[in-house]
Amino acid sequence: MRTPSVRNLAVGLSLGIIQPKDAVKWADSWIMRLDDVPYWLIEISTSPNATSYDLRKLLPIDSVGQGPTEQEFLGAMAVRFIDHHDSLCDLLPLMYDRFCSCEWTEMTATRQEIYVIDDEFDWDRTRATKTAHGFLEQFLAGGIRLIEEIKSEQTMDDNPH
Questions:
Q1: What pLDDT score does 91 carry?
Q2: What is the Cα–Cα distance from 161 to 145, expressed in whole angstroms?
């Protein structure tokens, strides 16, 4: 049996859509299925009080990859905002840092929408919340799909497809 892919888990932990307790369950499920268990899985499994940051540090570096894509990032923000009801006050700085506080050469539709939400947030938080909901809603299915991919690795049977 192949060992688990950790990229989705790393992305989910870094974006706050997978909680540390879920990562521990994920590791436990893999330990039960593997004959030759990698040490990093045991480390995660035995770290129930670790933070998301601490757990990401236990993952093999070469498996984590470049980080979340734009679609994964926005999908995670959509899940946190629409499904988990996280505050726009908490999410807006993350979106602004990712898309606006970086080097860029052109104005994209995503960047423009985040600027609008940020401007509205300063003078009418209700309107900013509605605008953010409308914008993020289009990415919600992708965020849910990412979570389902991670969780499906917990329940996968031993037969490769």
A1: 97
A2: 19
The parts of the chain modelled with pLDDT lower than 50 are 1, 156-161
The length of the chain, given as a count of residues: 161
Q: Give the single-character DSSP code of 49.
A: T
Q: Which residue type sits at 66?
A: Q
pTM, to two decimals: 0.78
Q: Which of 53, 67, 58, 63 is nearest to 13 (CA)?
A: 53
Compute the 3-state secondary structure of the chain and give helix, strand, coil in percent, each to the nearest 5.
Answer: 70, 0, 30
- Is 94 within 8 Å of 77 (Cβ atoms)? yes
CA atoms of 17 and 75, how far apart (whole Å): 10
Residues 147/18, Cβ–Cβ less than 8 Å: yes
Residue type, 114: I
End-to-end CA gap in the chain: 11
